């Protein structure tokens, strides 16, 4: 029953980052979290455990496929599944523990339990009601499933269940060829599962340009994933240890059935607002159930703000973090800003895929016929040296001003390299600016420079 300048509901990347910035700005801050550990979806069951599994299985793939050609001979490692899960849990523990440390360091009170907002200026947790001049809702998202598909987290799993299966499935069916489905699908393909991805759309990862989608799908197929595109899943029938996935190809009426040991439902996520009491307060929601906010993350109810997955925009940890920092500035009476035009998106498969800004298709819809500079990683010495010559860097620049409007990278370390292009976009740089910047040799980043050169008089190594 304490009194705070700000109480934040939810300790995911949006909430905990916001709490730190609020505290740094001199606000008396508390954070409420219903889970046992801090860090939200991202640290507990999302970004971090999935990247740990991608890393471990990438190592396995390298050992199985690339070691011998480099003269590293001997038996390939065998998989100790229990130990791999323990490694993943340890990584999660280090990260959630790190957030706990940061809360203490910044003198932020962690109120444990599930919060509701009984009235403006009050946050109820258990039997305690705390006063809060400002409330920031950062309650995140939950798995969205399909009609006819019931998740039991054993045979029919969400991403959460897929990160703690008790054994590696022989046959895995993934419903949905979005980021989460493809990341976890490639984890299991590397572990030897027969992975079939069923997707309603005709291309993987909606929102990417068609050339990126095609290359990405082809490379995943090379790694053993099978795709059934343009197919609508009708239902999943599960027993204790098996499932049957019934789908209907868009062309034709006949239903088809796939057998699976495990079915991963990766059809997206939806905002999580259960138990907050938003309806009684009259907090407006969007048609898709997100909390509606203005450009300063304020809801229509004074003193209540919202950020992260629970509001509109891409469901990404770094978007939530940026909003967390910006809303703290607003609450402290300063100016908060997020440039939604420069939020990178990354798929952490091998190769990685990273994008920022507009796609070529979006620019064309806006009536801009961009100049496109493309450079294949086959022409990049470093990429070839590490068996990663697949993919390309693609830059889209304004045909008259040469200003960078969008970029896509499919290739090694794409998720790190994209930031050169984010900074360039933030600074309003042209392709020429990038092309005139000396890039160290031999690095993957040289491919970015080459793509920039390709927007002008031509790349050197293609
Ligand atoms: C498998 C998977 C992989 C992902 N990988 C990536 C990635 O690589 N990169 C990336 O950018 N994004 C990734 N994401 C998405 C990312 O996890 C989310 O965008 C991010 O976590 C959103 O942050 P948030 O703070 O809005 O909400 P969340 O992280 O969902 O946190 C919200 C928290 O609020 C708590 N909460 C909710 N209601 C209440 C309440 N009433 N009282 C108290 N506590 C409450 C919840 O328990 C939760 O801990 C991934 C997601 C998944 C599922």
Overview of the structural elements:
The protein is an alpha/beta fold. It folds into 3 domains: 3-143 and 270-338, FAD/NAD(P)-binding domain; 156-267, FAD/NAD(P)-binding domain, CATH 3.50.50.60; 343-454, Enolase-like, domain 1, CATH 3.30.390.30. Helix content is 32%, strand content 24%. The chain has 14 helices and 22 strands. The strands form 5 sheets. Strands 1, 2, 3, 4, 5, 6 and 17 form a 7-stranded mixed β-sheet that branches. It has a 5-stranded parallel β-sheet with strand order 8-15-9-10-11. It has a 5-stranded antiparallel β-sheet with strand order 18-19-22-21-20, with helices on both faces. Strand 13 (243-249) and strand 14 form a beta hairpin. Helix 1 (13-24) runs parallel beside helix 9 (317-331). The site of flavin-adenine dinucleotide has 36 residues, from helix 1, strand 2, helix 2, helix 3 and helix 9.
Helices and strands, with pairings:
Layout lengths: L2 E7 L3 H12 L4 E5 L6 H6 L1 H19 L15 H25 L3 E4 L2 E2 L5 E4 L2 E10 L3 E3 L12 E2 L1 H4 L8 E5 L3 H12 L3 E5 L11 H13 L3 E3 L2 E8 L4 E7 L6 E5 L1 E4 L3 E3 L6 H4 L22 E3 L10 H15 L13 E3 L4 E6 L2 H6 L5 E6 L4 H5 L6 E6 L6 E8 L2 H13 L4 H5 L10 H9 L8
Parallel strand pairs: 1-2, 1-6, 2-3, 6-17, 8-15, 9-10, 9-15, 10-11
Antiparallel strand pairs: 4-5, 5-6, 7-16, 12-13, 13-14, 18-19, 19-22, 20-21, 21-22
Helix pairs in contact: 1-9, 3-4, 3-6
């Amino acid at each position: 029953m304490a009194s705070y300048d700000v109480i934040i509901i939810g300790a995911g990347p949006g909430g905990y980052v916001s709490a730190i910035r609020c505290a740094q700005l001199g606000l008396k801050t508390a954070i409420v979290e219903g889970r046992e550990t801090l860090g939200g979806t991202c640290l507990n069951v999302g970004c971090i455990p999935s990247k740990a599994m991608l890393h471990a299985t990438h190592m396995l793939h390298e050992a199985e496929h690339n070691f011998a050609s480099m003269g590293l001979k001997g038996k390939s490692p065998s998989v100790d599944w229990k130990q791999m899960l323990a490694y993943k849990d340890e990584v999660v523990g280090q990260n959630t523990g790190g957030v706990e440390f940061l809360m203490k360091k910044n003198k932020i009170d962690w109120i444990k339990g599930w919060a509701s907002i009984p009235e403006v200026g009050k946050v109820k947790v258990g039997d305690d009601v705390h006063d809060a001049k400002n409330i920031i809702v950062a309650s995140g998202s939950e798995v969205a499933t399909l009609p006819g598909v019931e998740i039991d987290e054993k045979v029919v799993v969400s991403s959460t269940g897929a990160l703690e299966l008790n054994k590696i499935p022989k046959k895995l069916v993934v419903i949905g060829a979005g980021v989460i489905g493809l990341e976890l699908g490639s984890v299991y393909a590397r572990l030897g599962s027969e992975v079939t991805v069923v997707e309603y759309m005709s291309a993987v990862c909606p929102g990417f340009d068609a050339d990126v989608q095609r290359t990405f799908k082809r490379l995943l197929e090379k790694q053993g994933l099978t795709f059934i595109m343009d197919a609508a899943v009708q239902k999943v029938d599960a027993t204790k240890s098996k499932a049957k996935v019934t789908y209907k190809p868009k062309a034709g009426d006949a239903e088809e059935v796939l057998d699976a040991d495990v079915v991963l439902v990766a059809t997206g996520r939806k905002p999580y607002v259960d138990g907050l009491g938003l309806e009684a307060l009259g907090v407006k929601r969007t048609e898709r159930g997100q909390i509606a906010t203005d450009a300063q993350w304020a809801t229509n109810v004074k003193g209540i703000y919202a950020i992260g997955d629970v509001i509109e925009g891409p469901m990404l940890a770094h978007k939530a973090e940026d909003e967390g920092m910006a809303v703290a500035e607003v609450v402290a009476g300063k100016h908060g800003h997020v440039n939604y035009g420069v939020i990178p998106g990354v798929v952490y498969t091998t190769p990685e895929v990273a994008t920022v800004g507009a796609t070529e298709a979006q620019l064309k819809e806006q009536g801009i016929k961009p100049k496109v500079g493309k450079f294949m990683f086959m022409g990049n010495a470093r990429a070839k040296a590490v068996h990663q010559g697949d993919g390309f860097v693609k830059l889209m620049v304004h045909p008259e001003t040469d200003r960078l409007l969008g970029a896509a990278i499919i290739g090694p370390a794409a998720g790190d390299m994209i930031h050169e292009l984010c900074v360039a976009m933030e600074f309003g740089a042209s392709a020429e600016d990038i092309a005139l910047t000396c890039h160290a040799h031999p690095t993957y980043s040289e491919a970015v420079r080459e793509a920039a050169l390709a927007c002008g008089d031509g790349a050197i190594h293609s």
